[in-house]
Amino acid sequence: MNGLDKFLSNTYNLNNCDKEPVHIPGLIQSFGCLVIASNVTKLILAVSENIERLGFKKEDLVGSPLLAFFDNEKILNSKIDDLFLRDVSFLGKNYCLTKTVNEGFIYIEVLPKIEKKHQISLDVTEVMTQELFFHDIVWKLYSSSDYERVMYYKFDEDYNGEVVAEGKDENLESYLGLHYPASDIPKQVRALFALNPIRVIQDTHDTPIRLYPSTEIRSSKPWNLTPCITRGVSPIHIQYLENMKVRSSMSFSIVNERGRLIGLIAFHSSQPVDIDLSFIETLTTLREKIGNGLPLLEEYENQSGVLRLEEIKTRILIEADKNSLMDDIVLSMILEIGDCEGCIVYEEGKNFNYNIDISKEYLEYMVKTLNDLEEHQEFATRSMILHFSDVLTNLETFSGLYGLKTNKGWLLLFKKEKIEEVNWAGKPEKTDINGTLNPRSSFELWSESVKNTSKSWAPFRRRFLRNIVDAVYR
Q1: How far apart are CA 269 and CA 258, in angstroms?
Q2: How far is Cα 351 from Cα 363, in angstroms, rounded to an integer?
């Protein structure tokens, strides 16, 4: 049994789907062909087994120079890592071609050519609120695509999502306002969206294609297909989409100025939709505009609040001791900026508490947990019970936490609980079918009173807090 067979023989379900290595599925979707080559030697190392549709034999290509497949030395040697070509011919048929460089490998994908032009303009100055901006985005994308539904998911601090805008066919039920739990998009999938912002699934009924050879020669590991448009699909996600009666989907991620996933635009259809590379190019351009436009809109919506926070920030920087925030007056102003009820400054093993009681032992435990996190420069959650044990015992009135790393320790802000009624897209729990855990089968509205959560930490307030910490602890 080779490396790929061992990988494919593993069973992943909702118990361990957050461990599923979705970047190495060992398969591609059949709508395209893939060639992998060394970026050093320019020799072909692997091809998809459907490469014969382009007029090549897989055995002949592997080990050959990349020029034997695509005779354009200028493109192949270009220092630009991501290239899109619209007119490439194989066996007298026109295709599109993409070239991506990742971790020492060149990935060339050949996709069907679709003769369409897309002109989608987004202008932040044309709208006055984020709500209108989201609405404008989804309806323009819906009108320009062949998908039946386009949705904008907005993520909270814990990656729970809400559909805040939707464009759809009239006969479809609306998902607007529905919430989706963070477990719908596992951690490793969110990480993939940071590396490759576009995810395409052309047909959930597709028969996937293996690579030849199926693993890297030196490591015997399945090929890392992170940058590929054609990357194969997790069986769990296929089941999830089919439960939603979705056969074709496309998603692209929205990140903030710090590279954190804050939104996702999802396209759904009950029928297969052809993959349009020119549309993907358009989305890639729009993604940056959306990410840059949201902070501007948020500050415009909170214009009076921003002016007030500017005044407070100026006072804090005057009042604060050099390289420390340990002061009652300063921390009272910090609470106003953070719109929260409690605060702790933790510096070199010492702590200064304001409007919050916590044992030294539990604070030390929280600090150690924060230091061990991957994103340990900044941390935000509406629900501390997701990240810290015994929170209800030690901080019974507080639910939300925002932490900023300083050169001496941490600035920790706390919000009190705010019970809220949440409309979920189906009951957010695992279902047992014949002894196997499966994605939920119903996405009908299911309401729940959610406890042990706080109000969100507004991004514009977080920016002010980061600026203060940077200025005081520089």
Answers
A1: 32
A2: 9
d(CA 113, CA 301): 42
| 11: its two tokens | 């069973």
The domain locations on the chain are 22-112, 124-301, 303-417+452-472
What is the reported pTM? 0.86
Starting at the edge strand found earlier in the chain, the sheet holding 398-405 runs: 350-354, 342-347, 409-416, 398-405, 378-381
In sequence order, what are the residues at sequence separation of 6 or more whose Cβ sits closer than 8 angstroms to the Cβ of residue 39? 101, 104, 105, 106
Q: How far apart are CA 143 and CA 135, in angstroms?
A: 12
Residues 335, 411: contact at Cβ < 8 Å?
Answer: no
- Tell me the three state secondary structure of residue 299: helix
Which CATH code fits 303-417+452-472?
3.30.450.270
In eight-state DSSP terms, residue 177 is T
Contacts (Cβ under 8 Å, ≥6 apart) of 167? 138, 139, 141, 142, 143, 149, 150
CATH of the domain spanning 124-301: 3.30.450.40
Class of domain 22-112: alpha beta
Instruction: Return all residues near 462 (Cβ < 8 A) that are at least 6 apart.
Output: 378, 380, 402
Q: Which residues contact 46 (CB under 8 A, 6 or more apart)?
A: 34, 35, 36, 62, 211, 212, 213, 223
Query: In angstroms, what is the C-alpha Rg of the chain?
Result: 25
10-residue averages of pLDDT along the chain (474 residues) = 44 50 82 95 96 96 94 76 82 92 93 81 79 94 95 94 96 92 87 90 96 88 92 90 94 90 96 91 88 89 91 93 87 97 95 95 96 86 94 91 95 94 70 50 66 94 95 89
Reduced to 3 states (helix: H, G, I; strand: E, B; else coil), residue 107 is: strand
Cβ atoms 344, 363 nearer than 8 A: yes
* Count of residues making up the chain: 474
Peptide bond into 25 cis (omega under 30): no
Pairing of strands 431-433, 33-38: unpaired
